[in-house]
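Translate structure to sequence.
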């Protein structure tokens, strides 16, 4: 027997091999395209998640700023109320005036040695 194939059969084998190669290339292209679509979909999902996280962070920061502003406003109001009396002349009753006069006399005596 001869190892040589008849010409028709050899062409059929070559044609079949070429079809298999072309089919494999087509399947590979489709697989690569599907991978690209999946990658694009995942990237879009990741970007959307990042935007949500950023928005949540911004909301939290805005809330903190608002709380800080309220706290500062309350503190300023309390300080203004506390210092309001410092700008007015003190009003002393007779007992307080007498104690003040006694304190002034005692201080004067101490300073002068009298």
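Result:
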């Amino acid at each position: 027997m001869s190892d040589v194939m008849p010409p028709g059969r050899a062409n059929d084998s070559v044609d079949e091999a070429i079809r298999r190669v072309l089919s494999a290339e087509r399947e590979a292209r489709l697989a690569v395209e599907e991978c690209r679509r999946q990658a694009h979909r995942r990237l879009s999902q990741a970007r959307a998640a990042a935007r949500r996280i950023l928005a949540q962070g911004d909301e939290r920061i805005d809330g903190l700023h608002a709380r800080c502003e309220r706290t500062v406003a309350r503190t300023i109001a309390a300080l203004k109320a506390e210092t309001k009396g410092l700008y007015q002349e003190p009003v002393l009753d007779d007992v307080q005036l007498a104690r003040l006069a006694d304190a002034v006399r005692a201080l004067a005596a101490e300073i002068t040695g009298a």
